[in-house]
Amino acid sequence: MAGSTANTQTVTRQDLAEAVYREIGLSRSESSTLVESVIDHIGDSLEKGEHVKLAGFGTFSLRDKSERIGRNPKTGEEVPITPRRVLVFKPSQVLRERVDSALSTKS
């Protein structure tokens, strides 16, 4: 894939809690509790159908997708895809610019 990196890392809840511990100065336990609370609140809001907008980061929202006809990639057979609700993340312009800038300096 063009532009992909072989050293892709994943940021975990523990990584976020450690960052809060280092940068804010809360205890490790308090930092972990804070991260869990924020994640739980985001999840609860999405479960209620609410949009979650984090200024400078992006917006999480739910989108209803209607029933449609798809194709089994192995057999080519047409199959119905049932209606469903999907979670969508739209990054803010600020986040897009930060990521684009970071990627362009690595090239």
UniProtKB/TrEMBL annotation:
Gene Ontology biological-process annotations: DNA recombination; positive regulation of metabolic process; regulation of DNA-templated transcription; regulation of translation
Quaternary assembly: Heterodimer of an alpha and a beta chain.
SMART domains: BHL (SM00411)
Annotated keywords: DNA recombination, DNA-binding, Transcription, Transcription regulation, Translation regulation
Its biological purpose: This protein is one of the two subunits of integration host factor, a specific DNA-binding protein that functions in genetic recombination as well as in transcriptional and translational control.
Entry-linked InterPro entries: Hist_DNA-bd, Histone-like_DNA-bd_CS, IHF-like_DNA-bd_dom_sf, IHF_alpha
Alphabetical list of Gene3D superfamilies matching this protein: IHF-like DNA-binding proteins (4.10.520.10)
Protein name from the UniProt record: Integration host factor subunit alpha
SUPFAM superfamilies: IHF-like DNA-binding proteins
One GO molecular-function entry: DNA binding
GO CC terms, sorted: cytosol
Similarity comment: family membership: Belongs to the bacterial histone-like protein family.
